[in-house]
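Write out the 3D structure for:
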Amino acid sequence: MAAGAVVAGGQTLATTFFDSTQAVAALQPVAQVSNDPPADPDASFEGAIGGDQLLPDPLAIDALDPASQVDVQNLAKAVDIGRELARQAAKIEAALADGAPEAFLYGETAFVKPTVGHLTSLFGSRWGRAHEGIDIAGPIGTPIYALTDAVVEESGPATGYGLWVVLRHTDGTQSVYGHVNRTFVKEGERVKAGEEIAEIGNRGYSTGPHLHLEVWSSDGSKINPLTWLRKRGIEY
């Protein structure tokens, strides 16, 4: 019933509008068309139906007042911001696709939390010798994820680490994942941020199942992984 009433009302309104338009048009003088030049070149057809009497195109920017133009500019900026946020969200979603617990953007690059577990040992001196990484304890088989986009430099046995994976990131830094139970990548393979590359294990010189994580600068010097991770939004 309501829909029918709306349609009927619309038809009545349209009929009334067009009837009124025809009645008004019949009373308006129409500019005469002739091949002869007008007697007075400056003569105008004031009151005749012409382009100056048409309503402005509501979609034309020039037809908007200055305040409306500002609104359109703000709307365009909002659309650009929305697209940028959607692009960033897509990067985060892709980094989390394999199950990584957290992902963050640092500049244009995605970084993930490499595994779930408890921080049990810090970077620095330990037991009278340098401990060049951090230890994150967890059950054997817990997934380990690539910190960021990288190329696999090594994957397999390593003295002291049992099994390890070494990745070289796009900026030249490297990440090292030691004492792993199994590796799922091969040397030369390209991996994406958040891709599962190994499992927590207890191989090599280890006192319990954990991930030993190191970060090396492009010149090979060792970086405190906690400082490096925190700068990229990752906390342990």
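The first strand starts at residue 103 and ends at 106.
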